[in-house]
Amino acid sequence: MTGISFTHTLNADGSATVGVPLHAPEVSPNWLTPGKSGLAILRDGVPVWGGMIWTASADLSAGVLTLNAAGYHSYYRGRVLEAGYTSMAEQAFMVRTWIETCNNTNGIGTVTANSGSTTFIKYRSWSKSELKNVAEAIEELAEEVDGFAFRYEPFMSADGRVYHRLIIARKVMTTGGFSLEHRLNCDVGQVTYDSSAMATRVFALGADNGNGTKLVGVADNPALTSTMAGKQIVATFSDVKATNELKAKASAIAAAGHKPVAIPSVVLHPGAFSPVDVLPGRPCAVNANSGYVRLLGTYVVTETKTDVDANGTESIALALADKDLFEHGSTN
Question: What is the pTM of this model?
Fold first, then answer.
């Protein structure tokens, strides 16, 4: 390898870029084709990232082929619910149904057994003509205030082949927590504070109800009203046809907007953790106290970025979000 870089992103595809010698026998076009080939990254013989190769770039002068991949979730951006879908069911059951439908019609074999449960019952309905994108359907279900976290975990079978399975869990995992302390086992290089998502009232607009008006769900942050000037956010969900679902989406946006978002950028010290120790969704205690910056609480990993250079030196960077943003207003 001439270099490896991969990310795990909460409730999203994640990505990977791998450079390999252009003339290596493993990169023959006879069996390595963007859109058809998968990519697994092993660390000490254990898969730590897996996904689909979508593009490749050959630099003939440098003698390097760069493979660009995205996590298994990216595959479901190219699948739609052709037969439509209407059901009131538990969230994880819905997701498994959509994925298994793809599995049964020339899919990628995502293992859904023992994927988990949320216990929350939801209603979803799309007609055949809407051709609802499967990845979007999963993401929208996960984003609600009583939503969930999901990921696709690569694993190796006894015969040495890499497969992958769906994992569904609470928005914030109850296990796998760890502690970060500035300058002890990590460096907090930067903290960004952003108030753009703050709102005293949120409107979620849905589908046209047939008379030229749209369905709407409203949620408030009453505690903010007495401490800041009114600030409203309007979000559009054109395929949502139920007011209670729109209210849930508005509540999720309001929950995330009850205070400014502090986003620390953290680089772990070499050898302190492996990439699978710090997966998105895991809680971590953060201790970084420097002037204006006072990060003394529990955060949630939202993205992990791992870089490995040609010498095998590994660097892991984390993006974090306040745990309270995931739990405020939740009905879990």
Answer: 0.84
